[in-house]
Write a structure and sequence with these properties.
The chain is low in regular secondary structure and about 50 residues long. The chain has one helix at about 40-45. The chain binds zinc ion.
């Protein structure tokens, strides 16, 4: 995964109440939908290998 690809807040971002404010940077990896089917970017995080 290219980290720069996720250097901006993601459109799908939803603040997770479990996050410390310091971690709440708006990135998908920190959103409450991360790695759930609710996240439209789940394909970015999964299955990059079989391209
Ligand atoms: Zn997301």
């Amino acid at each position: 995964m290219d980290p720069s690809e996720f250097s901006e807040p993601m459109p799908c971002y939803e603040s997770s109440p479990a996050l410390a404010p310091a971690d709440d940077d708006g990135m998908c990896v920190h959103c409450r939908m991360f790695l759930t089917i609710e996240c439209p970017y789940i394909d970015h995080f999964l299955g990059e290998d079989d391209e």
